[in-house]
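User: Um, what's this?
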Amino acid sequence: MRHDGRQLLLLVEADTDTRQRELLAVELLGAHLPMPAGIAAPASGDELVGAHWFEAPPGYAAAAPQNHVDVLATLTGLGRALRRLHDVPPPGALPRFDAAALVARAAAAVRAGRVDPANLDPSRATIDPARIVEQLESLLPMLDRRARTRPVAPALTHGAARLDTIWLDRGEPRGFLDVAGIAITDPYRDLATMTRDLAAALGPEALAPFFDAYGEPAPDVVRLEFHALLDELR
């Protein structure tokens, strides 16, 4: 929405804990990355109790039509944005997860009934979430073997890196949104979700320029698949 000539973003989370994590993440990342600036709620009848307002970064979300005019600039900007995020020195206070811990969290979510099969990707709509957990568990030994020759350096990750959570201004990264899930883990956690978004919106030919800009011209397809499966269960 717009107010007093500014484009505003309204943060309304379903629970207080998530909202507080989002606010803390914005504050933490703001020391290193372009983030939306928190402001006082506008004096209007649209105010919501418990909501938080931010001034939107310059530009638009990468999903917006304005960022599909120069597609190459957008793909380059997204790759640079995630590289910049993953290069931030990981703060010690954030949770750290290796692959096994991520699978354990996903399995717990499935057992607790927090994964709605209706929300799965259409390609997996008929698969029981428990079966996806089994697929993830079967990939763990392969990931472990690969890590012996190509160690995975944990990085600060977004957790919801998609076309609508990264803002660009003519290809320049300008803001990261929906950051309540930041954690220190394999950076492919973000590359997998962005890859899926890009392939769906622009086709598989969009992936090479994105990975080139990120600095990973030969991405690890096993790690991409692993983290794409994990994202189904979050």
